[in-house]
Amino acid sequence: MSNQSEAAAVSGKAPTSDGGGEWDEQLFARIVKIVAIAFSLFHLYTGATGPIYVMFQRSVHLGFALFLTFALYPASTKGPRSKLFILDAAFICLSIAVTVYSIAGFDGMVQRQGLPNLLDLAFGGIAILLVMEASRRVMGLQITIIVAAFLAYALLGQYVPGFFGHRPFSFSREIGYQYMTTEGLFGIPLGVSATFVIIFIIFGAFMHKTGMGKLFLDISMAVAGHFSGGPAKVAVISSCLMGMMSGSTVANVVTTGSFTIPLMKRIGYTPVFAAGVETVASTGGMFMPPVMGAAAFVMAEFLGISYMQVALMAFIPAFLYYFAILCQVHLRAKKMNLKGLPKSELPNPWTVLKSRGYLLIPILVLIYFLLQDYSPMRVGFYAIVATVALGVLLGKGEDRLTLRSFLDACEEAGKTAVTVAVACTASGIIVGVVTMTGLGLKFAMLIYEISQGILILTLLITMLVCLMLGMGVPVTASYIIVATIAAPVLIKLGIIAPAAHLFVCYFAVLADVTPPVCIAAFAAAGLAQSDPMKTGFTAWKLALAGFIVPFLFCYNSSLLGLGSPQEVIMAVVTAALGVVSLSVAVERYLLANLKIYHSIVLLGAAFALLIPEIVTDLIGLGLLGLIVLQQLWQRSGRRSQLQTTNNHNRSL
After folding, report:
1. CA-to-CA distance for 465 and 485, rounded, in angstroms?
2. Dihedral pair phi/psi, residue 614, rounded to 5°
3. Which three-class secondary structure state does DSSP give residue 589?
4. Looking at 181-281, which runs of residues are DSSP E strands?
């Protein structure tokens, strides 16, 4: 997306043009502002009262998203906006017409299912084209091409020879299935966006307005800023806290990275390493409970379990991911002899908590109601109410919530929700084609044939598919696609369903740090003024534990918190030691610099500890112990040599 489009999306104003007058631009900006606020207010209302019937809720949600897409994201940055606006206005009018028809004509469409009339076909075709154009503007051409390919497959797959061919489907059958049922365009992905995801986006916007982001940064600075390599640890902690609430890797990078990256560079980290740390820390927020990203809500719907169950199972893998990052930044700081920030420059933790600790109450409210098994939509609404009440009653200065800042938060949330809504709708079209044609089952059979039913090969193939589909595609969309076509084969091979879906989700997220299309790394590189590709490879290396942990919980469900307490504790302890071994091997430093063969031994120790077997755990502990003893011996030898040298100098 161009800088001009980004500016428009943030400000709500049409980009300046040669032909448009200032009054027109201001009027346009006001209309967009009102629509974005109405978008949020509608979902606050349904959050309080419960969702309206399915088709109404999802149609209104999609209608708002399409309106804002065509208002905020120009069709092209070339040419005067005044001329392009005519096309955008036409798309906006069509979006309204499609929304009204799907709501007003829903009862008739239900009665005509399987036999769409001419109006059904016309509005259904327009709706699909609008979603494809919206996805092109918001997410780029890649996802639009994927959607078009799936739609073409539904129509022309009867001519595909062999395994991937399917029975004929007419144009009217495809449009009817996509537009007149809740299996395609208005399927589960859009339903999740219209209920759970939007309410947490609104919650995040209100948290931002009440100063929660600054609180997270101050707490992180107070806790970790003075340690060796402190700013990098601050980046990890604050990005984790912010990421688990924001659910967007790039937004998290920009929010926290603008503060943490300069601090990391200041104490001696290279720009590439500083940007890499911020990239991996921000990315992990997508699978860090309690909020995680939009994909987690979709996962709960796919699995038919509560969102809280998904969050609880995701906690240990997410902990191991962040523990690995902290290990690596600490070892790098020790290796480079980097110090922390002076305590005089750091906030006092008790002062921070006394002045703004009340802002943590909404998070406690959120966790409490999730544990009580309330629906995520209702939980999010209660958390918003708590945030608004505290912002009005206790907020100070710019963090005090006024009517203006309340409306600003609603506007910000409405605009932010556009990306997720469009991604979910486009994904719904793909899911509709997969279920209608049976492609998911065929793809699962193909993976099974290639891997010959060998679990590790199946996992590796699925990982590669996730990473390829996730490059440049929003996490939610890539997760939905791969969960539909690849997760079933993992389940068929004996992996429990939550582990299979979390495996897919992890690699959909980690595509954002995987070169060559690592969008989170590119965002961080821009802030650090570092080489984007080098930043991507550095981030990939820092996230290495994240590429291994999903394989572990597929083999050992104890890492998902399933099993007896003893099994879970044992699995976590050995996995944590494995992560330490891996970090030391990657950084080639423990108490002193390591030789290459030391790193090879430590890699062996890491994999042995990560494998959930008593024998391999003992082997891993033995190998790790050997390296630790060697390092201690080396250190004691250096001290003895230094003491001898000092004594000799004194005698002279």
Report:
1. 10
2. -60, -45
3. strand
4. none
Listed range (30-39, 119-128, 239-248) with the worst mean pLDDT: 239-248
Residue-wise pLDDT for 604-632, tens only, equals 888 888 777 788 888 888 888 888 888 88
- Residue 374, SS3? coil
Q: Are 39 and 64 in contact (CB under 8 A)?
A: yes
Question: Mean pLDDT in the chain?
Answer: 83
Both tokens assigned to 396? 């100070």
Half-sphere exposure of 32 (CA within 13 A, CB side): 26
Reduced DSSP (H G I as helix, E B as strand, rest coil) percent helix, strand, coil of the chain, to 5? 80, 0, 20
Peptide bond into 290 cis (omega under 30): yes
Contact 331, 584 (CB under 8 A): yes
CA distance 265 to 626: 35
Q: Which two tokens stand for residue 50?
A: 């419960």
Residues 6+ apart with CB under 8 A from 589: 331, 332, 334, 335
- Phi/psi region, residue 65 (left: phi>0; alpha: psi -120 to 50; beta: rest), is alpha
Cis-peptide into 376, omega within 30 deg: no
Q: Which of 344, 340, 320, 321 is nearest to 330 (CA)?
A: 340
Q: Please state, in angstroms and as integers, the Cα–Cα distance from residue 452 to each residue in 399, 444, 542, 552, following that order.
A: 59, 12, 32, 21
Query: Given its phi and psi angles, is residue 434 left (phi above 0), alpha (psi -120 to 50 degrees) or beta?
Result: alpha
List pLDDT tens digits, range 401-434: 899 999 999 999 999 889 889 988 998 898 888 8
The pTM (predicted TM-score) of the whole model is: 0.81
Single out the residue of 564, 432, 448, 450 nearest to residue 495, CA to CA: 448
Asked if 125 contacts 175 with a C-beta cutoff of 8 angstroms, the reply is yes
User: Residue 640 pLDDT > 70, yes or no?
Assistant: no
Residue 320: partners with Cβ closer than 8 Å, 6 or more residues away: 545, 549, 559, 572, 575, 576, 579
Place of tokens 């390919």: 149
Half-sphere exposure of 40 (CA within 13 A, CB side): 27
pLDDT tens per residue, range 186-213: 888 898 889 888 998 898 889 888 888 7
Q: State how far the Cα of 207 lies from the Cα of 380, in Å rounded to an integer.
A: 12
Angle at 329 between CA 282 and CA 614, to 5 degrees: 95
What digits encode the pLDDT tens for the residues 340-397? 778 777 888 888 888 888 888 988 898 888 888 788 888 889 999 999 999 999 888 8
- The DSSP letter of residue 193 is I
Tell me the C-alpha distance between 295 and 484, whole Å: 13
DSSP 9-75: HHH--PPP-SS--HHHHHHHHHHHHHHHHHHHHHHHHHHHH-PPPHHHHHHHHHHHHHHHHHHHS-S
Q: What is the pLDDT of residue 461?
A: 87
